[in-house]
Design goal:
With 2002 residues, the protein is α+β, with helices and mostly antiparallel strands. The chain has 65 helices and 40 strands.
Length: 2002
C-alpha cells in the first residue's frame, strides 16, 4: 500500500534507472527527486527538473537528504537543508553545463572564433575546480578559516563564470545568496552596487612588492665565484630605498645552493605607490672573488679578494605593464675606472657612457621579475606556493607608508662610504680592505649579526671589496646589523683597515682601525646620518683584543673636544652613514626627557611643550608610555599642568587621524579599555573642554580650538572611561554632579552651535561667516562618534534627547559658502547609521529631526547624494516582514516618511533623470549620480505601504487636481524605472523586485483612477498615462520569461508569477470600465495594445485580443467604419514585427477560431456575429496576410548575405503595401529597403528600376516635401531631379544605358524649360556618353531560368509558385542550381521537368524545380531592321522580356523503332510573367502558362527550314567574303550531303510521303507538300552552295569537294530528282561576290535581280534568337570547330552534335541559353543503332543544362501560342534518331548578293519593318500552303512586302528558297560563328511578326498576292487584344490612381499624340522604314493594295513598364 512519506522528501539519484517497469520513472545519475509516497522498497515521486512526469523507482537508487517543506500538502515544495553555497553551486553548475555544451557547438562551427574556444576551455577548468571545492565543503573536515577561504574562492569563481556567460549578478552576504524578500530594497541595492563596483573597478592596492628570482650570469670568461647584490634605488634623490638582497654564484655563474630557493628568490616588500615611477630602478652590483687582477696567473697567491666585476640596471616602470612573471636578460656593464665604481649605477642611469662599457659582448644576467600588489597577508593566501617553497624578505629602508602596531623591527644599516689614507711609506697607493665586526658590552664579537643583505644568513664579520692602488677609496657598501634591543646598550662596531699585498705571499696587513658605539650614555642611539670616524693606527691584531683600551679614545672627529687639534689635523679619515629603523629605540632626547619626567620634574613644562615637535613615528612607538606619562602628570599636578596635558593629549589624538598612524587607533582604544587608570581625570577634561567651547565665539584664532573639537571623540572616551572607573571605585558617588557637568557642557555646545554667522563686531567681521561656521562643522563631524560613549552612562532616551536638542540648536539657514550645510547632512547620516538610531525608542525621537532636514534639502535639490545616503540607511532599518500588528512603531514611521518625503522622492527622481547627461556617459546612471539610491528608497517605501497607508495617502489629497498630478507623477516615475538603462543589464533580481513593487502599487492606484476619473470626471491624460505604463511594463525585456533558461523561469514564476498576465488582466478590466470613453483611445492605443498581444504569452494574448474587437465595434458605431483601426493596426504591425516581435502562433491565433479569454469566443467568431462582419473578416484576412509577409521578411533579414530570398520577400511586401493596402509611405519605405538590398548585391539595373517606383510617384512641381528617410527637406522638383540622376547612375553601372538615355532626355527637357543651360549641357554630355558606351562597351547576355518552389516549408511569397529568374553574368544552369540550393539548404532538387502533383504541393518539405528557358523578345522592329549594330540588338534580345519558351520532345502513340520520327512530338510551353525582366527583382512570378503540342510533320518542316536557312547564310557569308576560312561551309555541306548518301532525307520520305500516312492524315496534305517543297529547295541550295564552294575551295581540299559533288548526285537520285522542276529551272540565279550596297557595319546588303519579283510566301515560324558569342570570339571558335569536325564525322548527327567551347578571347556571355535549332531527322544507316536506347526521352528529365537537356536544344524557336506557325526550319536536313542529342551550331545569316552566270543584277528592294531581308533566285509558283495540326489553333498572317523605292515597277516573282532575313547579332567578323546558340533568321516577314509578338506590318506585298492566301488572317488583331487585356505593370505611373493629384505622363517617356518623332536617317542607297502598329482598318487598306506611308518606330514605354 502506498503511504505518503513524512520525513523522506528529498533525495539524489545514485545510479541511473531505466524505468522499464510499469509506471517506472527513468532517472539519470545526479538527478534530484522529490518523494511523494513509499511502498515496499519503492518510492513514487518526480524529478525536480520535470515535475509533471511522476512515476516509481527503487529506494536503493536514492540517497536521502534533509529538506525543509513549504506549503505541506498537495502543492508542497521542498527546499534542501544544506549550505546555501552548496545549493547555489549545484544549480549554477547545471545551468553552466547546458551553456558549456552550446559553447562547444559554437567553437566547432566557428573554428576561427578564438574567444568562444578560450571560454570553453576556461569554463571547463573552472567547473572542475568548483566541483573539487564542493567536495571539500561537503566532506566537512575543514577548519573555520579554511572553510571561509574555500567559500570565498567558490563565490569568486561563480561570479566570474556568471559574468563570462552574461548571467545575472547574484546578491550575496557572507557568501550566501540573499533572498530579496528577506531584506529591504535599499539593502538589496547596496549589495548589488557593492558587488557591481567591486566587479567594475577593483580598488587599487596601496602596497606593492617586487618578486626577484636570480637565475644565472651568462659569460664566457668567468672561472671565479661571484656575489650578486640587488637593491632598489631612487635616482631622483640618489639614495637606496631598500636593503640589499645577496646571492652567491659558483664559477659557472649559477646559484651556489640551487636547492635552497630562499637563497635565490626574494620579495622586496612595502613599496608605496609613490615608489612605482620611472626614476626608481632595480640596481644589481656584481663582485667577483679571486685574484687582485682579473688577468693574473693562477696560483700566484692563494689569498682571494672581493673585487668589482659589473653592474646592471632595470627601471621598475618596465614591470608595471607586465601581468605575469617576466624573464629579463640584463646587460652587465663594467667601470672604465675603478675609482668610479661607487657611482657606476648612476652613470648607467644617466647614460654617461664614457664612464662604463659592456663587461662582455655576451655577458648577461638572467633574472625573473614580477610586481605583486596588496598587503603581505593577502599575498601569502594568493601565492601560497611562493611562501611555502621559500622566499627571503627584503625590507624597505625605513618604515612603510602605513605603520602597523604589531610591527617589530630593530635594524641598523651602516654604509661604508669612503676613506682617506696615507701611502704609509709605500711608493704606490694602498689596496685597502675593511673588515667589520660588532662587539658587545663585554668586548666579545657578536656572532651572526653582520649581514651583507637578505638571502644569506648573517656572519661574524664582513670584508669590503678592494680597490686597486687607491688611497681615497669609495665603497658605498651597505651592511645590515640586526642587533636585538637588549644588546644595543654598550655595543660598538669596529672597522679594521688592511693593506692587501699583491706579492707572492699575498698577505693582508693591518694598519689601522675605527670604531663607533651604538648607544650614547643617555640612552639615545647613534643618530642617523654621516659620521667621520677617526682612524687609529694599529699594526698588531693583539692590540685590538681588549676593546676597553680603545673605547676610551675618541671615535669621531665631530665629538672631539675643541683643544684636541692634533687628532683633528690627521689626514686619514673614514666616513660611514648610519640609519636606524627601530620600533623600540629612539634617537630623540626630548622623548626620553618626557618619559623620565619624574627624574627631572623641573623639565616637565619644557618636555610638554616640545612634545608637539617630536616626530609622530617616535610618539606612536611609545604611545602607551606617553599616555601614562601625561595622565600621571595630570593626576599629580592638574592645576599647574592641566591645560598643557590636555593640549598634548589633543595633539596625540589628532596625530592618530593621520593616515600613516591611523592603525594605532585600536592601540589607543585598547589602552583606554585596559590600561587607562585616571579615575579622576574626567573632571579636569570636562572643565578644560568646556573652557575651550565657551571661548570659541570670542577667539580670534580658532585653529587650536578646532583641533580640540576634532579630538572630542577620544576626549569623551577618556571622560566616560574615567567616570566609570571612578564610579566603580566609589560605588557611584557624585553621579548628579557628573550629570550636571555633562549637561552644562552640552549647554555650552548648543549655545556655540546655535550662533548664526553674522559678523557684528569689528574684530569678527573679517572671520565671519566662515570662522565660527568652520568650528561648528568640525564639531559636527566628530559628534556622532560620541553617542556610543554616552550610551555607556546614560539611557537611550537621554542620549536621544541630547542629540535631538544639540542638532535642533543648529541655525536653520547658512551662507552658501559655509560648509556647515553639507556637514549637517553628514552628521545626520552618521546619526542614522549609529547604534543609537537602530533602537526603536530613540528612532521615534530622532526621526522628525532627520526628516525636517532631508525635506529642506530635497526641496532645494541640494546635496542629493547625502540625502539619498541618509534615506537609504533609514529605510534599511524597516524590514519587509515587520507587520503592523507586531511593530506598530514601524507603521507610524512609514506614515511619517510617506507624508514628508514620498512626493519629494518622486519629484527628485524626475528631476535627476531629466537632467542632460554629459557626453560619453554609459547607461548606468546610478553610478554617476544618485538615481539608483533614490529609486531603491522609493521602492522600499512603496513596498512597506499597506492598504491603510494607501488610503491615508489618497485621502490626504484635498482636490482632484492634486490627486491627478500625483498619479501622473508616479506613473511617469514608474515608466522611468522600467527603462533598460535604469539598472545594469545583469541586475535581474533588482528589476524583478522593482516590477513587483510597481504592479502592486498600480493595483492600489487603479481603484483611485476608477473612482475619481471616470464618467463625467473622466481625465484622458491620467488614463492615457496609466495605459502607456501598463504597456511598457508588459513589454520590458526582463519579464520575457520565454528567453530565460528553464531553471531561471521556474524560480521567477514561483516567486512572482507571470507579472505580464497580471498586468494584462488589469488592462482588460480597466478598458471594460471605460465605456464610451474608449473612443478617446482609438486609434491612439491600437499600436501599444498590439505590441502587448505580440508578446508570446498565450494567456496574455487571449486577454488582450478581444480589445481589438471592442475597438472595431466602437469605431464602427462612431464613424460607420473602422478605417482608423485598420490603418493604425497595419502601420504598427509593420514596425513591431520588423523589431522581432510576433510569431507564427500569433498569426494563427489572430485568424483562428480558438476561444479566447473567459467567456469570449475567438476574434473571428465574435466578428462574425456583428453587422459589420464582412469588413471585419476582410480586415482580419488582410492583417493575417500582412503578418505572413512580415514574418517571412523578418526571417529572411536574419540571414547574413543578400540573396534572392531577401529581395523576393521585400518585393512581395512592397507589392502588398501598394496593391492591397495602398499605404504609400510604407510602400516608399520598402522601395528604399529593396533599393539598398540591390545595391548591396550589386544588382544596379534592378536598383534603378526599384528607385524608379518612387520617382514616378513624384511630379515636376515646386511642392515642398518634408524630411523623409535620408532625404532633406526640399521641393518635389529637386527630389525628382536627384532621383533621376541616381537612377541614371545606376543604369550606367548596370550597363542598361538605353533606359538611362530616356531619363536623361526627360531631365534635359526640364532643364531646357527652365533655361538651365549649364545643367542641360551636362545632361546632353551624359546622354552622349551613354550612346558611346552602347557602341563601344561589351555587354553580356544573361541566361534565364524557370524556378518552381513547391511544398509548405517555403515562405508564403514563394510557396507553390513558379518564377523566371535572370541569371548573373557567366552563370550557367549548374551554377544557378547550386546557388538556389545554397539559398534553400533544406530544399530537394526535382529531377524532372513535369508539373508536380498535389502531394508535392502539400508536402511538409521544400522542392525546387529548375530549368533554363529562352526569352521571346518584344522589340522585333529593332531586331529585324537592317544595319542595326549587334551592340544595340543584344540589348533588345534580353531586356523588356515578358514571355519565355521551353520545348520538350516526347513520343505519342506507338514508337516505330525503325523510324522514330513518325511519333516524335514537341510539347512547347510559353510562360508569361506578371512583369517584364529585368525589373525591380531578378525574378518575377509566372502569370500565365500556355501549352502547345507540335506534330512530327510540323517538327520535320521546322528542322529542314532551319537547315536551309543555315546553308543560305553560310553561302552568303562566303560569297560576300565575310569568311576568311571556308571550313564552316565545307563542314555544313559535308554534313548534309554525306548524311543524304546514307539515306538522310529518305527517313522523312519513309515517314510522311508513304501512302499510309497520306491516307491516314488527309488534313496534312498541304504540310506534306510543304515538306516536299523544302526538300527540293534544299537540294537546289546545295547545288548552288557547291558552285560557290568550288569557287573558293583551297587546292588541298579539292578532293573533298569532288567527293561532295559525287555524293550530291547520289543524293539527288535518292530523292528521285533527275532535274529540278520547271519552277526551279525557270529562274536561274547568278551568284556574284561583290555586294551592291553595304550597311554601316560593313555587312553587304541585298541586291535585287533583274526580272525578279516579290511574291508573298509563308515563311517558317522563326525566332530571332540570340547568338551568345561576341564577334570577337567567332573566328577562333569557328575555325577550331571546322578543323575539329571536318573529315571526322560520318553523319550530320555527329557533326552538329559536337558542342563548341567558348573561345578564351570571348568577352561576351558564354551562357547556357538553349540552342534554337535541333534536327530531329532520322539517323543515317551508318549512325549508331544504339542511340535511341541510350538516350531515351521521358517526362523524368532532370534539371539539365541547356547543352544536355532535350528541351530547347531540339526545338529552338520561341513561339507565341497566339501567333506561332508550325513551320520551323531545322538545323540539319537529316532525320535524327535521338532527340537528346543537342543542336548543331547555328550560323549567322548575313546579307549578301546572289548571282548566276549571265543574269543581270536586280535592283535593291526595300521592305518595310524588315531589316536584312534577302532577295533570292526566283522559283516557280508553289501550291498554297495553309493549316496546322497544332493543338492550339493559331492565326497565320502573311507579311506582304513593299516594292523597292528604287524601281517604279517590278515583275512579280515567286519566293526563292534562298530568301533570308537576319535576326541574329550582326557580326563584324567575316568568319562563321561556331556558337551552337546562334540566331536563327526567318525567311519572310510573316515569321517575324508571328514569332515576335508584335503586329504585322502592312505595305510589304502587292495587293494581288493577298488573294492567294485564303487561310491567312491577320495576327495583329489577336496580338493587340492580348496586349490590351494584359495586366499592366503595377508600378507604372499610368495605372496609379491617386485621388489627390493626377500625375501626367512625362512627355519624355510617352508617345506624342499628333506628332511623329523624327525618323532615323536612311542608309546610303537605301531608305529604311520602321514598323508601326495598325488597327483592323489599316490591315484592310493594305489588302487593297493602298500604299502605306511608313512611320518611324515609337519610343518605348516608361522604363518601369518595359
Amino acid at each position: 500500500m502506498w503511504i505518503p512519506t513524512e520525513n523522506e522528501k528529498y533525495g539524489v539519484v545514485l545510479a541511473s534507472f531505466r524505468g522499464t517497469v510499469q509506471h517506472g520513472l527513468p532517472l539519470e545519475i545526479g538527478d534530484t527527486v522529490q518523494l511523494l509516497e513509499k511502498c515496499e522498497g519503492w518510492y513514487r515521486g518526480f524529478v525536480l527538473k520535470n515535475p509533471n512526469a511522476k512515476g516509481i523507482f527503487p529506494c536503493s537508487y536514492i540517497y536521502l537528504k534533509n529538506a525543509h517543506i513549504k506549503n505541506k500538502g498537495q502543492f508542497e515544495t521542498v527546499i534542501p537543508m544544506e549550505d546555501s553555497v552548496i545549493t547555489e553551486m549545484t544549480s549554477t553548475l547545471r545551468d553552466w553545463g547546458a551553456m558549456w555544451k552550446r559553447l562547444y557547438v559554437v567553437k566547432s562551427a566557428q573554428h576561427t572564433h578564438k574567444n568562444e574556444g578560450d571560454l570553453f576551455h576556461r569554463l571547463w577548468h573552472v567547473m572542475n575546480e568548483i566541483l573539487d571545492l564542493r567536495r571539500q565543503v561537503l566532506v566537512g573536515h575543514l577548519t573555520n578559516d579554511r572553510m571561509r577561504d574555500v567559500k570565498h574562492h567558490i563565490t569568486a569563481r561563480l561570479d566570474w563564470g556568471n559574468e563570462q556567460l552574461c548571467l545575472d549578478l547574484v546578491p550575496r552576504r557572507e557568501f550566501s545568496m540573499v533572498d530579496p524578500d528577506e531584506i529591504s530594497v535599499t539593502e538589496l541595492f547596496k549589495l548589488m552596487e557593492h558587488r557591481h563596483r567591486k566587479k567594475e573597478t577593483p580598488v587599487p592596492a596601496s602596497t606593492h612588492h617586487l618578486f626577484v628570482h636570480m637565475k644565472s650570469l651568462m659569460s664566457f670568461s668567468l672561472g671565479e665565484e661571484l656575489e650578486v647584490f640587488f637593491h632598489i634605488y631612487d635616482s631622483r634623490e640618489n639614495r637606496p630605498l631598500s636593503e640589499r638582497f645577496f646571492v652567491r654564484l659558483n664559477k659557472n655563474g649559477v646559484p651556489k645552493s640551487p636547492e635552497k630557493t630562499e637563497r635565490q628568490c626574494t620579495l622586496f616588500v612595502d613599496l608605496g605607490s609613490s615608489d612605482l615611477r620611472k626614476d626608481v630602478y632595480i640596481v644589481v652590483h656584481i663582485i667577483r672573488i679571486g685574484r687582485m687582477g682579473a688577468g693574473e696567473k693562477k696560483n700566484l697567491c692563494s689569498v682571494q679578494y672581493r673585487r668589482p666585476f659589473g653592474c646592471a640596471v632595470v627601471s621598475i616602470a618596465d614591470l608595471l605593464t607586465a601581468d605575469s612573471k617576466d624573464d629579463h636578460l640584463l646587460k652587465v656593464y663594467a667601470c672604465n675606472t675603478e675609482s668610479e665604481w661607487h657611482q657606476i649605477h648612476e652613470s648607467i642611469i644617466r647614460k654617461i657612457s664614457s664612464r662604463y662599457n659592456l663587461a662582455g659582448s655576451n655577458t648577461g644576467l638572467a633574472v625573473s621579475l614580477q610586481l605583486l600588489h596588496g598587503d603581505i597577508e593577502q599575498l601569502r593566501r594568493e601565492y601560497m606556493v611562493l611562501f611555502t617553497r621559500g622566499v627571503s624578505i627584503t625590507k624597505k629602508l625605513g618604515f612603510s607608508d602605513i605603520i602597523m602596531p604589531g610591527d617589530m623591527r630593530n635594524d641598523l644599516y651602516i654604509t661604508l662610504e669612503k676613506g682617506e689614507f696615507e701611502k704609509g711609506g709605500k711608493s704606490v697607493a694602498r689596496n685597502v680592505e675593511i673588515t667589520v665586526y660588532v662587539l658587545d658590552i663585554d668586548g666579545q664579537v657578536m656572532k651572526s649579526y653582520v649581514a651583507a643583505g637578505s638571502g644569506e644568513p648573517g656572519g661574524d664579520e664582513y670584508h669590503s671589496f678592494v680597490l686597486y692602488h687607491n688611497n681615497s677609496p669609495r665603497w658605498a657598501e651597505q651592511i645590515k646589523l640586526p642587533i636585538p634591543v637588549d644588546m644595543f646598550r654598550g655595543s660598538h662596531v669596529r672597522f679594521e683597515f688592511r693593506h692587501c699585498s699583491t706579492k707572492d705571499k699575498g698577505e693582508k696587513k693591518l694598519f689601522g682601525y675605527s670604531f663607533v658605539p651604538l648607544m650614547q650614555e643617555d640612552g639615545r642611539t647613534l643618530p642617523d646620518g654621516t659620521h667621520e670616524l677617526i682612524i687609529h693606527k694599529c699594526e698588531e691584531n693583539a692590540n685590538l683584543q681588549d676593546s676597553a683600551r680603545y673605547l676610551k679614545l675618541p671615535f669621531s672627529k665631530a665629538n672631539l673636544p675643541g683643544n684636541n687639534q692634533a687628532v683633528k689635523g690627521v689626514k686619514e679619515s673614514f666616513w660611514i652613514t648610519s640609519f636606524l629603523c627601530s620600533t623600540k629605540l629612539t634617537q630623540n632626547g626630548d622623548m626620553l626627557d618626557l618619559l623620565k619626567w619624574r627624574a627631572h620634574p623641573e623639565r616637565i613644562n619644557d618636555s610638554l611643550s616640545k612634545l608637539k615637535e617630536i616626530d609622530g613615528s617616535e610618539i606612536v612607538k611609545f604611545l602607551q608610555d606617553t599616555l601614562d606619562t601625561l595622565f600621571g602628570i595630570l593626576d599629580e599636578s592638574s592645576q599647574r599642568y592641566g591645560l598643557k596635558v590636555f593640549d598634548c593629549l589633543v595633539h596625540i589624538i589628532n596625530l592618530l587621524q593621520d593616515s600613516k598612524f591611523q592603525h594605532f587607533k585600536p592601540v589607543m582604544d585598547t589602552y583606554i579599555e585596559s590600561h587607562f587608570a585616571g579615575a579622576l581625570s574626567y573632571r579636569d577634561l570636562i572643565k578644560v573642554l568646556k573652557w575651550y567651547v565657551d571661548r570659541i565665539i570670542d577667539a580670534e584664532h580658532q585653529d587650536h580650538i578646532q583641533q580640540v573639537l576634532k579630538a572630542s571623540e577620544y576626549i569623551f572616551k577618556y571622560i566616560v572611561q574615567s567616570r566609570r572607573l571612578f564610579a566603580l571605585a566609589t560605588g557611584g558617588q557624585n553621579e548628579e554632579e557628573f550629570r550636571c557637568c555633562v549637561h552644562e557642557l552640552f549647554m555650552s555646545i548648543r549655545f556655540f552651535l546655535s550662533q548664526e554667522n553674522k559678523g557684528t563686531s569689528p574684530v569678527t567681521q573679517t572671520q565671519c561667516p566662515c570662522v565660527c561656521c568652520n568650528s561648528q562643522a568640525v564639531f559636527l563631524r566628530t559628534f556622532p562618534a560620541v553617542y556610543g560613549e554616552l550610551l555607556k552612562i546614560f539611557t537611550v532616551k537621554e542620549v536621544a534627547g541630547f542629540v535631538k536638542e544639540t542638532l535642533g540648536s543648529l541655525p536653520a539657514t547658512a551662507h552658501a559658502e559655509c560648509p556647515l550645510e553639507a556637514v549637517k547632512l553628514q552628521c545626520m547620516a552618521k546619526t542614522v547609521e549609529s547604534q543609537l538610531y537602530v533602537n526603536p525608542d530613540s528612532r521615534c525621537t530622532l526621526l522628525p529631526v532627520v526628516l525636517r532636514l532631508l525635506q529642506a534639502h530635497m526641496q532645494e535639490q541640494r546635496d542629493l547624494v547625502m540625502c539619498a545616503h541618509i534615506l537609504t540607511s533609514m529605510l534599511s532599518l524597516i524590514r519587509k516582514d515587520d507587520s503592523v500588528t507586531t511593530e506598530p512603531a514601524v507603521s507610524e514611521e512609514v506614515d511619517l516618511i510617506v507624508e514628508s518625503l514620498l512626493g519629494l522622492l518622486l519629484q527628485t527622481i524626475l528631476e535627476i533623470t531629466n537632467r542632460p547627461q554629459p557626453a560619453g556617459t554609459n547607461m548606468r546612471l546610478q553610478f554617476q549620480d544618485v538615481t539608483g539610491e533614490f529609486v531603491a528608497c522609493l521602492l522600499a517605501l512603496l513596498r512597506q505601504m499597506t492598504d491603510k497607508h494607501y488610503q491615508q495617502l489618497l485621502q490626504a489629497f484635498t482636490s482632484k487636481d492634486d490627486l491627478r498630478d500625483f498619479l501622473l507623477q508616479i506613473f511617469t516615475v514608474f515608466r522611468i524605472l522600467i527603462r533598460p538603462e535604469m539598472f545594469p543589464k545583469d541586475w535581474t533580481v533588482m528589476r524583478l523586485v522593482t516590477n513587483n513593487v510597481i504592479i502592486t502599487t498600480v493595483l492600489y492606484l487603479s481603484d483611485a483612477l476608477r473612482k475619481n476619473f471616470l464618467n463625467e470626471k473622466f481625465d484622458y491624460k491620467v488614463w492615457d498615462s496609466y495605459f502607456y505604463l501598463s504597456v511598457i511594463f508588459i513589454n520590458q525585456p526582463c519579464l520575457q520569461l520565454e528567453s530565460f533558461s528553464p531553471s531561471k523561469r521556474k524560480k521567477i514564476l514561483e516567486k512572482y508569477g507571470d507579472m505580464r498576465v497580471m498586468m494584462g488582466c488589469e488592462i482588460f478590466s480597466m478598458w471594460q470600465n471605460l465605456g464610451e470613453h474608449k473612443l478617446n483611445f482609438i486609434p491612439a492605443m491600437i499600436g501599444p495594445f498590439l505590441e502587448v498581444t505580440l508578446v508570446p504569452q498565450p494567456d496574455l494574448r487571449n486577454v488582450m485580443i478581444p480589445i481589438f474587437h471592442d475597438m472595431m465595434d466602437w469605431e464602427q458605431r462612431r464613424s460607420g467604419n473602422f478605417k482608423q483601426v485598420e490603418a493604425k493596426l497595419i502601420d504598427k504591425l509593420d514596425s513591431l514585427m520588423s523589431e522581432g516581435k510576433g510569431d507564427e502562433t500569433y498569426r494563427e491565433l489572430f485568424n483562428s477560431i480558438i476561444p479566447l479569454f473567459g467567456p469570449y469566443p475567438s476574434l473571428l467568431k465574435k466578428i462574425e456575429r456583428e453587422t459589420w462582419r464582412e469588413s471585419g473578416i476582410s480586415l482580419i484576412a488582410t492583417v493575417t496576410r500582412l503578418m505572413e509577409r512580415l514574418l517571412d521578411y523578418r526571417d529572411c533579414m536574419k540571414l547574413g548575405e543578400v540573396d534572392g530570398k531577401k529581395i523576393g520577400c521585400t518585393v512581395s511586401l512592397l507589392n502588398f503595401y501598394k496593391t492591397e493596402l495602398n499605404k504609400e509611405e510604407m510602400y516608399i519605405r520598402y522601395i528604399h529597403k529593396l533599393y539598398d538590398l540591390h545595391l548591396k548585391a550589386q544588382n544596379y539595373t534592378e536598383a534603378s528600376y526599384t528607385l524608379l517606383l518612387y520617382d514616378e510617384l513624384l511630379e515636376w512641381s515646386e511642392r515642398p516635401l518634408r524630411e523623409f528617410l535620408n532625404y532633406p527637406m526640399q521641393s518635389e522638383w529637386q527630389r525628382k531631379e536627384y532621383l533621376h540622376l541616381t537612377i541614371v547612375q545606376n543604369f550606367d553601372r548596370g550597363k542598361c544605358w538605353e533606359n538611362g538615355i530616356i531619363l536623361c532626355r526627360e531631365l534635359a527637357d526640364q532643364y531646357d524649360s527652365y533655361y538651365d543651360y549649364r545643367n542641360l549641357s551636362k545632361m546632353r554630355m551624359m546622354e552622349a556618353s551613354l550612346y558611346d558606351k552602347i557602341m563601344d562597351q561589351q555587354r553580356l547576355e544573361p541566361e534565364f531560368f524557370r524556378v518552381g518552389f513547391y511544398g509548405k516549408k517555403f515562405p508564403f511569397f514563394l510557396r507553390n509558385k513558379e518564377f523566371v529568374c535572370r541569371g548573373h553574368d557567366y552563370e550557367r544552369l549548374e551554377a544557378f542550381q547550386q546557388r538556389m540550393l545554397n539559398e534553400f539548404p533544406h530544399a530537394i532538387a526535382m529531377q524532372h521537368v513535369n508539373q508536380p502533383d498535389q502531394t508535392i504541393y502539400q508536402a511538409e518539405a521544400q522542392y525546387l524545380q529548375i530549368y533554363a528557358v529562352s526569352p521571346i523578345p518584344e522589340s522585333q522592329d529593332v531586331l529585324q531592321r537592317d544595319g542595326v549594330p549587334d551592340n544595340i540588338k543584344s540589348f533588345y534580345k534580353v531586356n523588356h522580356i515578358w514571355r519565355f519558351r521551353y520545348d520538350r520532345p516526347f513520343h505519342k502513340g506507338t514508337k516505330d523503332k525503325e523510324n522514330e520520327f513518325k511519333s516524335l512530338w514537341v510539347e512547347r510551353t510559353t510562360l508569361t510573367l506578371v512583369q517584364s525582366l529585368p525589373g525591380i527583382s531578378r525574378w518575377f512570378e509566372v502569370d500565365k502558362r500556355e501549352l502547345v503540342e507540335v506534330s512530327p510533320l510540323e517538327n520535320a518542316i521546322e528542322v529542314i527550314e532551319n537547315k536551309n536557312l543555315q546553308l543560305r547564310t553560310l553561302i552568303t557569308q562566303c560569297q560576300s567574303r565575310q569568311m576568311q576560312n571556308i571550313n564552316p561551309l565545307t563542314m555544313c555541306l559535308n554534313g548534309v550531303i554525306d548524311a543524304a548518301v546514307n539515306g538522310g532525307l529518305a527517313r522523312y520520305q519513309e515517314a510522311f510521303f508513304v501512302k499510309d500516312y497520306v491516307m491516314n492524315h488527309p488534313e496534312d496534305g498541304e504540310k506534306i507538300g510543304r515538306l516536299r517543297e523544302l526538300m527540293f529547295e534544299q537540294a537546289h541550295i546545295l547545288e548552288y552552295g557547291l558552285a560557290v564552294h568550288e569557287k573558293f575551295v583551297p587546292q588541298d581540299m579539292k578532293p573533298l569537294h569532288k567527293k561532295l559533288v559525287d555524293q550530291f548526285h547520289v543524293m539527288k537520285s535518292s530523292l528521285g530528282i533527275q532535274e529540278f522542276p520547271a519552277y526551279v529551272r525557270a529562274s536561274p540565279v547568278h551568284f556574284n561576290g561583290s555586294p551592291r550596297n553595304s550597311c554601316r557595319n560593313s555587312v553587304p546588303n541585298i541586291l535585287s535581280l533583274d526580272g525578279a519579283r516579290v511574291v508573298a510566301r509563308r515563311s517558317p515560324l522563326t525566332y530571332p534568337s540570340v547568338n551568345r558569342y561576341s564577334s570577337s570570339s567567332l573566328s577562333s571558335q569557328a575555325s577550331n570547330e571546322v578543323s575539329n569536325i571536318t573529315g571526322q564525322s560520318e553523319s550530320s548527327d555527329e557533326v552538329f552534335n559536337m558542342q563548341p567551347s567558348p573561345s578564351t578571347s570571348s568577352l561576351s556571355s558564354n551562357h547556357s541559353a538553349s540552342p534554337n535549332v535541333t534536327s530531329s531527322a532520322p539517323s543515317s544507316a551508318r549512325g549508331s543503332p544504339q542511340l535511341q536506347d541510350k538516350h531515351k526521352h521521358s517526362r523524368e528529365n532532370s534539371c539539365l543544362s541547356p547543352r544536355e537537356r532535350p528541351v530547347s536544344a531540339i526545338f529552338p524557336t520561341p513561339l507565341d501560342p497566339a501567333q506561332a506557325s508550325p513551320n520551323q526550319i531545322g538545323d540539319t536536313i537529316l532525320p535524327r534518331s535521338d532527340p537528346n542529342l543537342s543542336a548543331p551550331d547555328k550560323v549567322r545569316p548575313t546579307f549578301s548578293s546572289w548571282s548566276l552566270d549571265s543574269v543581270k543584277e536586280v535592283n535593291n528592294t526595300q521592305f518595310s519593318d524588315t531589316v536584312g531581308k534577302f532577295l533570292s533566285p526566283p522559283v516557280p509558283p508553289r501550291p498554297p500552303y495553309s493549316g496546322s495540326s497544332a493543338k492550339s489553333i493559331r492565326s497565320q498572317s502573311p507579311g506582304p512586302m513593299s516594292r523597292s523605292p528604287q524601281k517604279s515597277s517590278m515583275p512579280p516573282f515567286t519566293p526563292s528558297p534562298t530568301e533570308c532575313q537576319s535576326a541574329g547579332l550582326v557580326s563584324n567578323s567575316p568568319v562563321l560563328s561556331g556558337s551552337y546558340s546562334s540566331g536563327i533568321s526567318s525567311l519572310s516577314r510573316c515569321s517575324v511578326s508571328e514569332a515576335s509578338g508584335t503586329e504585322a506590318t502592312a505595305g510589304d506585298h502587292p495587293a494581288h498576292l493577298a488573294a492567294t492566301m485564303p487561310n491567312s488572317v491577320s495576327s495583329g488583331s489577336d496580338e493587340l487584344i492580348r496586349r490590351e487585356n494584359k495586366t499592366p505593370p503595377p508600378y507604372s505611373v499610368y495605372e496609379r490612381t491617386n485621388p489627390r493629384r493626377p500625375v501626367p505622363l512625362p512627355h519624355s517617356l510617352s508617345i506624342p499624340p499628333n506628332a511623329d518623332p523624327p525618323a532615323l536617317p536612311p542608309k546610303p542607297h537605301q531608305i529604311r522604314t520602321s514598323s508601326m502598329k495598325l488597327d483592323q482598318a489599316s490591315d484592310s487598306r493594305r489588302a487593297d493594295g493602298v500604299p502605306h506611308v511608313p512611320r518611324p518606330r515609337p519610343l518605348p514605354r516608361k522604363v518601369s513598364q518595359l
